[in-house]
Amino acid sequence: GLLRESDGRVFLRSDAWVELARALGGWWRPLALARFVPRFLRDGVYRWISNNRYRFLGNNATCQLSNPEVAARLRQ
């Protein structure tokens, strides 16, 4: 994954997820504590999840945003 902030900072792989969790706040915020885990371990978990995402989440042939209900929920 790649996250590019408006101020020009760029975050890769697990660093992107840590920064995203921090920025989202709420119940995502505790995931930002992963920044204290060494990067090579976090990135290993990131790669494992990435390589197995279809097994965990399934493989959708269509974009979920094409569903008006999903798009409306994301705009809230």
Can you describe what's shown?
With 76 residues, the chain is mainly alpha-helical. It is 50% helix and 8% strand. It contains four helices and two strands. The chain has a two-stranded antiparallel sheet. A hairpin with a 5-residue loop joins strand 1 and strand 2. The chain is globular.
Query: So what's the overall shape?
Result: globular
- How many distinct helices? 4
Major sheet description: 2 strands, antiparallel
Distance between the first and last residues' Cα:
24 Å
The structural class is mainly alpha
Number of strands: 2
Keywords:
76 residues; mainly alpha
List strands and helices in order, with pairings.
Blueprint: E1 2-4, E2 10-12, H1 13-24, H2 39-51, H3 53-57, H4 68-75
Antiparallel strand pairs: 1-2
Short note summarizing the structure:
The chain has 76 residues and is mainly alpha-helical.
